[in-house]
Amino acid sequence: MTHRTQAPSGDDLASSPLAGPPPVRVEPSPPPASRHHRRGRLTRRQRLSAWDVKLSPYLYISPFFVLFAVVGLFPLAYTAYVSVFDWSLLGGKGDFVGLQNFEDVLGNPYFLKSLVNTISIFLLSSIPQVVIAVSLAGLLDTHLRGRTLWRMSILLPFVVSPVVVAIIFGNLFGDTYGLINQALGYVGIEPIQWHTNRFASHLAIASMVNWRWTGYNALIFLAAMQAVPRDLYESASLDGAGRVRQFLNITIPMIRPTMIFVIITSTIGGLQIFAEPRLFDTTLAQNGGSDRQFGTLTMLIYDFGWHLRDLGRASATAWLLFLLIVVIALVNFLVSRRLNALGGRR
Amino acid sequence: MPAILAESDAFVDLTDPSLDGRWLDFKAAAATNSDGQMIGYGTDAGPEGICYRSDLFEKAGLPTAREDVAALMGSWDDYFATGREFVAAVPGSAWYDSSGGTAQAMLNQVANPFETDDGTIDVENAGLAEVWDAVTGNVADGLSTTLPQWSEDWVASFQNDGFATMACPGWMLGVVEGNAEGVAGWDFADAFPGGGGNWGGSFLTVPQQSDHPEEAKEFAAWITAPEQQAKAFAAIGAFPSQVDALEAPEVLEVSNAFFNDAPVGEILSHRAAAITVQPFKGPRYSDILQAFQAAILRVDDGSNSPDESWKTFLSDVSQLS
Question: For B211-226, how does the pLDDT look when each residue is reduced to its tens digit (9 = 90+)?
């Protein structure tokens, strides 16, 4: 009995051979009153161990949040701070100007143009990309001969740096001596002004984005498809559903969460598109074509910050883009929640 | 450099009386701010001559020898008139490489292209209008390839007999040689329409954050000395901006096999001596120049008429202040 009072932990209580307890004392949770009594007398080590249980999980996930605070949250807040000042790239901070930078940006004729270009390029790249990636994944999710080879090779474009992609596509889409226009010339079609015609330039840039990202997304879809229970397909075949029917009515609904993930990530990436249009410019002195045919919002930020050396306006533009992405992400979220609800009812 | 002069506070004052007279006047002026402080030491300069394809000249029935070609290019009007003759005789080839490059060459001879001497933006002046009218007018006559300078198409045009001449600062010779690899017939004339002109060239500056500003200044002074820059020209073709280097044997003796053994060192020294005007470059010079080049390109690629494009240019410039 003396031993029990000195070491009053629950484990000892339950397992102490000295207690010689009647069966009723061996129940796992002691009565509340005695637990309260014991807590008041925890040793330091025990208190530490209790903290350990409570805090450790947060500590283990903290590196991400600390890093995020340093490289995500801080720049975000600092950009907001810069955006209300007259701030030169070389000279640094100037006078406080309130919302003047935001007014200037919204009044700039290129803001609206860049916004339209961004959304147009985003739609031209994201929609075909998801459709083609899902179809590719569907084709790869079959018993192909050498399927690891096929599955790996669709990732190849993703391994290539976007700069290299832009140089290769720059040669393809040259207005005068480009490969595509020369090929069109052989079949008697007028050359397409890839860098002048607004829609053609968007198509060209979207094709670069699609070339790079379709395989990557297809692999993500493929992983999701492999998790679909095979017996669903078996029952469907017994019911007489063909391959296409199975794909549309089983595969697609089953991978919906993955589709939502891909759509949201490609939305965020698509709205921030920079490298492809920047390098599609025939010279770096331009900024999205001679008449901003394919200038995007991130390029406008670059233009303000690094061509015109006005970090105040660049920061204001960055914040406007951030707000736009938040709004579109919210719409995405609401739509997908609704879709999920529909899926649950099915 | 003009934008850097506008932020002089961020850079070390490199003024050193012992270096007075080291650089050509226009070069020293370009690195000196309104308080008379020298912020940068000039490395190279870009005196311009005319690169031309003697084989295409022959095809057009034009003279091909360097001295005879030089005689055709006394003024911009002469240069363009010869060009009209050329494009009539050789369909499929343009007269010059790009509207942008030609406009740049003409701008290099305008005293106040975009700003008045006190730095006020003024783009509606006669000098700029002359450049604009000439360059955009030539597009319809087929004198220009209408390609953006430095674009892939522009690079490809060197291999496709795309054009016959171009304004060539010294550093451009290497660019032509690289782009036109395997093409025979390039030559370099000791002439430039409208006199001399400087295009490009760099400076070394020392930022205030430097931990060793004295050593940095000393090094910059050494590397920009005539002896070193004369060697740099022999090695990589960057033409010196130092007065003494213009007479240095290492410079004068340089000839270029690709350009039909033209004595490029001697020619560029002549071209450097012919430079009389250095455009005023205020803090907004580069920004306006970029807008101006985009305006020319809108006419080149047909997305705007010259009048529309000029209006957009004025609106772009009004956004700058």
Answer: 999 999 999 999 999 9
